[in-house]
Amino acid sequence: MDEDRFKRYDRYERALIEVLDLLGLAHPPAPSGDERTNQKVRRHWQCHVALMIMREAAPQQPEELFEPLMRAAVYEPDPSHTQWHIRPALAAFGRRRVQTRLLEYLRTGTKYEIIGAADAWYCSYLRVAGSGVEDDPCTDLRHDFQEIGLHIYLTNDDPRVRSRLISLLNLRADKNTPELRRVLPQ
Fold first, then answer.
1. pTM, rounded to two decimals
2. pLDDT on residue 38
3. Dist. CA 123–CA 86, nearest whole Å
4. Handedness of CA 34, 42, 48, 168 (dihedral sign)
């Protein structure tokens, strides 16, 4: 890691600690010793602290906001703007709930909703938002997405749906269940 990055990380971490102090939040153990030279370890700590701050600083959102945020994300016509709706949904309601709802859109949605849900799925892994359960990778939901996405890809002939899904699917046989490995060659 170059010296400029060290300086930037040091300033960023001091700012994060200052915000934690102002919010009255306990400091998670910061990387020390050799870990301070490991960029991934430091970024993980920084993201963890930023998530703590976001959750504490963001006002609680009413339950009624969930469905409209999800609809806005799915119907956003510009995929690069989908994150504007997914970020607050993730912050307020957690990754698991957001991804579960997106899977419902994939299972039951129109072609347009499937495309929008795929765009939103991609955004649902944004680091800044995290999930309702700390660092929950929602691995089970990722497997569900893989299964549903492959099924849609194989049964839906709309080129827009297929092109949106193919970039999100893992086509490596060793990364899929035995059942899905049988359909991968298709």
1. 0.65
2. 84
3. 7
4. negative
What's residue 1's pLDDT?
44
Phi, psi of 126 (to 5 degrees): -60, 135
Q: Over the chain, what is the mean pLDDT?
A: 81
What pLDDT was estimated at residue 176?
Answer: 64
pLDDT at 132: 42
b (16+ CB within 10 A) / e for 18-56: ebbeeeebeeeeebeeeebeeeeebeebbebbbbbbebe
Q: What is the 3-state secondary structure (H, E, C) of the chain?
A: CCHHHHHHHHHHHHHHHHHHHHHCCCCCCCCCHHHHHCHHHHHHHHHHHHHHHHHHHCCCCCHHHHHHHHHHHHHCCCHHHCHHHHHHHHHHHCHHHHHHHHHHHHHHCCHHHHHHHHHHHHHCCCCCCCCCCCCCCCHHHHHHHHHHHHHHHHHCCCHHHHHHHHCCCCCCHHHCCHHHHHHCCC
130-145 pLDDT, tens digit each? 444 344 567 788 889 9
Identity of the amino acid at 18: E
